[in-house]
């Protein structure tokens, strides 16, 4: 089928490349000329496993094209998918981009085409959507078109797989007399081995929101269990393992630590509480999920402070900046709050992330943050190492081999990613979340150690001493 995707962010780009992979004829549209040019040259500007090769093969086969010309792209399409942003960047919704996009395309769509909204929508906008589209068609005297919601449930770092092998496909019907739109969208997903769930548009919208809110709740729940575990001397990973065999509960999203970040979960928690309040509903559970999540970040800083003592004298190495592994995304990444809080308390903070773009971006967002080129350099002279993102490379660090690089042997593991016994065996003081706060009794500061590596940190940005 001929599909046009508007908005080439994470969601839109993965959708466009994934549909081309499924042998549809796809045009990706964005208002950002530079992004379109870059993509047309086969360069994917975001770090997402598998996406680069999908875009390359789409371009090579001729099934995937990119343009800024929305009008031409939508008028030739059988299905038009809108995937523009709906966050305002400050914990709220914004629908201006969506409304402007619709105003630019709806009148140009063919009479037999179907409009599909893939962006996550605020619930109150769903009813307006139908009115806006119907009005735009009526204004130019064109026939009504089907309007559907098709929310995405993709995780960053797994977005390609989540698109090609989804758990389910949700189709929300806003306008579709005769079912022509649902037929078209079902054809677009032909070959996908997943249940296709048809429901009303508002049900689709709330099921997307509900899925994210539930995942966020599970994480904050695990973080409260971690407090209990710490208080009573248990290991929270054993506790959640014991829970997870109950098929009603399951084991996913119960990893305790510094909590959730990213473009979806934190925003949607905040936005839901606000949007509910606007219609006179209080959501104390979801509000608490957000509060617990914010607390985890401060708790990480407090844990470092309690082990190093005076933060003003301390050099803290942060391992990882992205909000989770396999992405360079820093949107609402816990690392940013953590780095700011540590710097504000007077600590010298040096960070390393395996993806250079994440580091450069973080340095621009957090004044005073220093960068290191690799694991050894970030640890050089540090009083404590903080695991912020559980990149596989950090799990593989042989702590006994890097012990001599650090001024003091302290690791605070914000992702419960390391084996406490192995780190303690390397003579480190180790703290994590819900797994015995201190796995090794604190000792006085070791003598300063002469580093055996020639390169000093900060080769990436010239941050003054
Ligand atoms: C999420 C949803 O999973 C996805 O379905 C939706 O479409 C978009 O939002 P994403 O933001 O990419 O996806 O990341 P996800 O893998 O869900 O992780 C979110 C955050 O929660 C990360 O910061 C992660 O480190 C954290 N997390 C996850 C935990 O702290 N504990 C867990 O057990 C799981």
Outline:
The chain is of the alpha/beta class. The chain has 18 helices and 14 strands.
Name a few traits of the molecule:
465 residues, alpha/beta, 8-stranded mixed β-sheet, 14 strands, elongated, disordered C terminus, binds uridine-5'-diphosphate-xylopyranose
Note down, in words, how this protein is organized.
The protein is of the alpha/beta class. 43% of the residues lie in helices and 13% in strands. The protein has 18 helices and 14 strands. Strands 3-2-1-4-5-6-7-8 form an 8-stranded mixed sheet, sandwiched between helices. Strands 11-10-9-12-13-14 form a 6-stranded parallel sheet. Strand 5, helix 6 (123-139) and strand 6 (147-149) form a beta-alpha-beta unit. Helix 9 (201-232) packs across helix 11, helix 9 (201-232) runs parallel beside helix 12 and helix 12 (284-308) crosses helix 13. The longest helix has 32 residues, at 201-232. It is elongated, with a radius of gyration of 24 Å. Residues 152-156, 212, 215, 219, 253-255, 257, 259-262, 264-265, 323-324 line the site of uridine-5'-diphosphate-xylopyranose (UDX).
Indicate the topology.
Blueprint: E1 2-6, H1 10-21, E2 25-29, H2 33-40, H3 51-61, E3 64-67, H4 70-75, E4 79-82, H5 96-105, E5 114-117, H6 123-139, E6 147-149, H7 159-164, E7 169-175, H8 180-188, E8 196-200, H9 201-232, H10 236-244, H11 265-278, H12 284-308, E9 315-319, H13 334-344, E10 348-352, H14 356-365, E11 370-371, H15 375-379, E12 384-387, H16 392-395, H17 399-402, E13 410-413, H18 420-425, E14 429-431
Parallel strand pairs: 1-2, 1-4, 2-3, 4-5, 5-6, 7-8, 9-10, 9-12, 10-11, 12-13, 13-14
Antiparallel strand pairs: 6-7
The structure holds uridine-5'-diphosphate-xylopyranose.
Uridine-5'-diphosphate-xylopyranose (UDX) is lined by residues 152-156, 212, 215, 219, 253-255, 257, 259-262, 264-265, 323-324.
